[in-house]
């Protein structure tokens, strides 16, 4: 098969996080080195933490980059571990403004859509490989009610297959505040910057493996 093509995204700052760790981590990715190491094509970008931008940019990225898998990273301010999300919920929190000061005008993302959309990366296996690498990781079935959940839903919709062709894989990873950072309400015992950078590379490698296994008709 051709090299797996992966898209990695982080989020920009937003109210409550002037410096979003995922923006720092994704920006610092050595894309060329990782592409060589994992024998993949890799693209990385930062999503504005804005509903309108995510609505426009994510579908465009799926069409432009044409990834076999998209892995989105976001901040969970009260997490202690790396959280691998297993689903997105068809709901939003209109009371919380995005980075542009805008709110969603509806309580649902897709009016006629299902209650949930399951992420399509092998979440359980990603947790296993993260733990083997010494990184605290857990499964999560709650991506929240803000842009992380919203982006996951939009990406899963954009990844859908058409005309008998299988769609791409899509998943979301929540990271905690790095241990070196002071943040209100953040628990103790969090991994540091180095561990989170390793986590990001580990998840990318797992995503590439999932794409290869899928092309062989095997579970990733």
Automatic annotation (TrEMBL):
Residue positions of the active site: 148
Keyword list, A-Z: Cytoplasm, Hydrolase, Protease, Thiol protease
One cellular component (GO) term of this entry: cytosol
Reaction(s) this enzyme catalyzes, per UniProt: Release of an N-terminal pyroglutamyl group from a polypeptide, the second amino acid generally not being Pro
Molecular function GO terms recorded: pyroglutamyl-peptidase activity
Enzyme Commission code: 3.4.19.3
Biological process terms in GO annotation: proteolysis
Family under the similarity heading: Belongs to the peptidase C15 family.
Protein name (record): Pyroglutamyl-peptidase I
């Amino acid at each position: 098969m051709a090299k797996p093509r992966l898209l990695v995204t982080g989020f920009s700052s937003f109210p409550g996080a002037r410096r979003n760790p995922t923006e720092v981590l994704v920006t610092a990715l050595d894309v060329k080195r990782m592409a060589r190491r994992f024998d993949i094509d890799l693209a990385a970008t930062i999503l504005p933490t804005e509903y309108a931008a995510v609505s426009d940019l994510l579908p465009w990225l799926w069409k432009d980059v044409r990834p076999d898998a998209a892995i989105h990273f976001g901040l969970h301010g009260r997490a202690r571990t790396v959280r691998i999300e297993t689903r997105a919920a068809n709901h939003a929190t209109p009371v919380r403004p995005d980075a542009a000061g805008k709110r969603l005008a509806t309580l649902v993302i897709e009016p006629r859509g299902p209650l949930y959309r399951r992420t399509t990366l092998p979440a359980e296996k990603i947790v296993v490989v993260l733990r083997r690498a010494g990184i605290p990781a857990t499964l999560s079935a709650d991506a929240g009610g803000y842009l992380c959940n919203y982006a996951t839903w939009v990406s899963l919709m954009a990844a859908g297959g058409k005309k008998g062709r299988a769609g791409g894989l899509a998943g979301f990873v929540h990271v905690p505040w790095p241990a070196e950072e002071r943040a209100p309400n953040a628990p103790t015992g969090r991994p540091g910057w180095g561990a989170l950078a390793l986590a990001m590379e580990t998840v990318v490698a797992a995503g590439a493996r999932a794409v290869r296994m899928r092309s062989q008709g095997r579970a990733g």
